[in-house]
Give the backbone structure.
Amino acid sequence: MVVTSRDFAQTIGLLDRYGIPHRPMGAHGGGGLKGKARAMTSRSSALAKMVRSERFDLAVAHGSTDQPMVARLAGIPQVTMFDYEHAAAMHHLNGRFATRVIVPDAIPERALAKYGIRSPKLMRYPGLKEEYYLADEAPDPAGVIAELGLDADLVTVTLRPPPEVTLYHRGASTDVFAQVVDRLEAERDRVQTVVLPRTQDQREALTARGFMVPAQAVDGPGLIAASDLVVSAGGTMNREAVALGVPAYSPFAGRLGAVDARLIEEGRMHRLEDAADLALVRRERGISPPMRDPNILLELIMGAATTMDGR
């Protein structure tokens, strides 16, 4: 098995932290269309060179625009996974090139038909992807508390800024997130905030505000388990919090996806429209919600290696 990576945010740091061998291939293209196009061309070229020199039976990616096209040209079955259906530019490409598309069952099939994604190519799984991959190993909050020197007497907040360089966020307001930053700064005497920035600009700005910004990639699930609440403008960290039974707030200003809409409807996640609505209190520690069997996802993925149907 070969894992590829790109130099963006904490990707490479996390792979190194968990001891996952990987091959770096390109970097993020930034917020502009030209930069994204150049980055996609560079990464696709590197992937194509790799598959020409080695033999692969299956390609698997979550939200990649590069891999599905390269795999199709090389005649390799390709599995595309995602859990946000409104990233139109991405799905028009990966949905058509993929052999199999796997999404959470919260996303209705009718929402994907415009991308050319239909049964039997389309397969859906129950719950959240986070409930599957977090089932393999229990988080280690004590390790993160010791590593970061967190104060057990303070309310602990994990804060993830909005992905401002992502196309489907372009033009979305960040006012609520700015309000959250102001409130957490004002509550510093009783609240400790750990920020996981996406860009260097975010890192510098939030460090200057006096927040705790780890220099190295940290154990995300362990940090979430050590927290009293999570505020994330992206999807994955909030859903990890939901899976671990930690209160999660989303100030996401873009178009709400079906997965998050279901979680909000069920009361498992909160859509944050006013920073005053944050409950900055210590949460009760108890038994985490049940996880799901990773073999369910594995069987859906590996099944694509034995068929080219649905292309």
